[in-house]
Amino acid sequence: MKTRRDEIAAGLAEVERRISEACEAAGRARREVTLVAVTKTYPASDVGILTELGVRDVAENRDQEAAPKAAECSGLPLTWHFVGQLQTNKARSVVSYAHVIHSVDRLRLAEALSREAVKAGREVVCLVQVALDDDPARGGVAPAGIPPLADAIAEAPGLVLGGVMAVAPLGADPGPAFARLRELSSALRGDHPGATVISAGMSADLADAIAHGATHVRVGTALLGRRKPFVR
Q1: 19-45 pLDDT, tens digit each
Q2: Residue 231: is its pLDDT beyond 50?
Q3: Those residues with Cβ within 8 angstroms of residue 222's Cβ, 6 or more apart along the chain or in another chain
Q4: N or C: which end of the chain has fewer CB within 10 A?
Q5: Which NCBIfam families does this one have (predicted)?
Q6: Crossing angle (nearest 10°) for helices 44-52 and 4-26
Q7: Helix, strand, coil content of the chain in percent (nearest 5)
Q8: How many other β-carbons are positioned within 10 Å of the β-carbon of residue 229?
Q9: Which residue ranges form the domains of the chain, and what is each CATH number?
């Protein structure tokens, strides 16, 4: 009978195969792409198994789940990523455990994160979340808003501008959206050469993202199986 470790190991092996094949097809080295395991709705025990299997980057998208899980896993050698929509009143909590926040899409949020990072004596990497469609519920700043927000993050105490993040539009070919994100990333690096991160691609579209320059892919379902609804 398969153990949970067996299931996760098989999922990880398949995801690694897909990433490696996508890198080869794109003429890129495997080391150029970081796998970020999205562990939302999964228990801390799964995070422990992933760590044992060599994963070092994990992500959550809801603070009320992420904070206690990060605390439970505090002894593990992990980089914690926050990838969900973030309200300013959660800034203090998220800054307490997240090393990278992918979803910074407005000045007020950047200012709140900066204040809390300074208070906590931490330095947090922030990515500008870019809207590649017209759905405001999915978050993100319009492309024209990237430069001023990026400048503000780069100048904010306690924050480091890491690059950009986006989610592909629903029901559309992700390729053109990821190509657009790559262009926006290139323009951003003209002003901020160190902002090299392109966080794009999930379980279904990671190959398209890697083909268009993604440096970080956010994978949950393909690694850990279908999620259960999160209950508070």
Answers
A1: 999 999 999 999 999 999 999 999 999
A2: no
A3: 11, 14, 15, 18, 203
A4: N
A5: YggS family pyridoxal phosphate-dependent enzyme
A6: 60
A7: 50, 15, 35
A8: 5
A9: 4-224 (3.20.20.10)
String of b and e for 3-20 (b: at least 16 CB within 10 Å)?
A: eeeeebbebbeebeebbe
State how far the Cα of 180 lies from the Cα of 202, in Å rounded to an integer: 17
Q: Six-digit token pair at 201?
A: 């691609």
Per-residue DSSP letter, 89: G
d(CA 71, CA 78): 12
Contact 82, 60 (CB under 8 A): yes
Q: What is the token pair recorded at 4?
A: 């949970």
Q: Which of 6, 40, 27 is nearest to 202 (CA)?
A: 40
> What mean pLDDT comes out for the span 57-75?
97
Contact (Cβ atoms closer than 8 angstroms) between residue 48 and residue 20: no
Q: Helix 44-52 crosses helix 63-72 at what angle (to 10 degrees)?
A: 50
Name the burial class of residue 72, with classes exposed (0-12), middle (13-18) and buried (19+) by CB atoms within 10 angstroms of its CB. middle
CA-nearest of 179, 225, 217, 230 to 81 is: 217
Residue among 170, 157, 165, 155 nearest 209 (CA): 165
DSSP, residue by residue, 194-220: T--EEE---TTTHHHHHHTT-SEEEES
Tokens of 2: 């398969």
